[in-house]
Fold this sequence. Notes:
Elements: E1 8-10, E2 13-14, H1 15-19, H2 23-33, E3 49-51, E4 53-55, H3 65-75, H4 81-84, E5 85-90, E6 95-100, H5 102-109, E7 113-114, E8 120-121, H6 131-137, H7 153-158, H8 167-177, H9 184-199, H10 203-212
Antiparallel strand pairs: 1-4, 2-3, 3-5, 5-6, 7-8
Helix pairs in contact: 8-9
Amino acid sequence: MSNALTIQFRDNLDRSILAAEGELYREYFAFLDNGRYDKIYRSYTHQHVVNHFPYMPIMDRLTIPAISRLFWAAVIPSWGKTLFESDYLVNRRTHTVKVPSFVRYMLEHQPIVPTNDGTCRRASEVFHRSQKLEMLVGLEFPLTDFGDKSLTAAQAREIGLKTELTLSDALTLLERISKEPWSDVQRGRLEEIYGWFARHPSPSTIDALSRSGARRRGSWRRMVRFDPLTRCAWFSPTSV
């Protein structure tokens, strides 16, 4: 059981032997073959070796939330370049190419990030858990759930987690918030969202707001006044 909680970095792993261990490893090598290293190396069919290969016995079960959290509990303290980069050696180790590690491949192609909705998702679909984002997205979007471990914002960006809203996210939040009872919490969320719009002024942002139906009234009618954009001034800090 202790091995399952410690990530190992293995050297001199023969490609053919590793590929025989499971479909995920075969998919990883197919990913590398598709333009990740020079095509000439493909002619060396029996001399492919991987160094600095991150390995845990639970690698084939990382889409299960409880097991994924065990994986991240080991990964986060071991953070570093080696975690995301491996060496691929061919022709009796006379040629070496830096390639994305198996962990990097899994992050980009498999749902291995545990979230607060009880599922695992791809990193690009999950928000980094911070106090600000937790307040802002609430239960509207999935947040990371690494148990008692946490990432810095820089680490979150490195593995492809969402660390800020996109235009689509902001519009979706406005739509959903408009259907909820008004409160000070909702006011704070609105201030953050419109702050995002102010920091990202562009014709596409203005157009999207105009078409989105974001000027909601409903249950907020007596609490907040929403005016058409044509009656509002749009400015950024650099324009005043």
